[in-house]
Amino acid sequence: QVQLVESGGGLVQPGGSLRLSCAGFGFTFTGCTMKWYRQAPGLERELVASITSGGRTINYSDSVKGRFTISRDNAKNTVYLQMNSLKSEDTAVYYCNAFRPGAYSPDIWGRGTQVIVSS
pLDDT-based confidence at 34, cuts 50/70/90? Predict the structure, then answer.
């Protein structure tokens, strides 16, 4: 079964850190660009970070640049999002996405993991 499973969300105080993980199953993980999105209540889904299949190209949104780090371990079919210096505005549901170039349905989505930044 093709799926992405996120973990690592939770409640953290402002200034704290969390590491999100996303494990892929049932597809060729190494061929995918992996992305993290987030969606806060009442707002559109926002692309936070992306990493190409070999990890050579990494991009971040301006809102998280310098605080978040995306990485991947292709041997474990897993992508990570290390989030430091968290702010209340980082509160959102975080979704993992796998983009498979050339596939009939190129996008695979996880169900999301909730991150709440609050004192």
Answer: very high
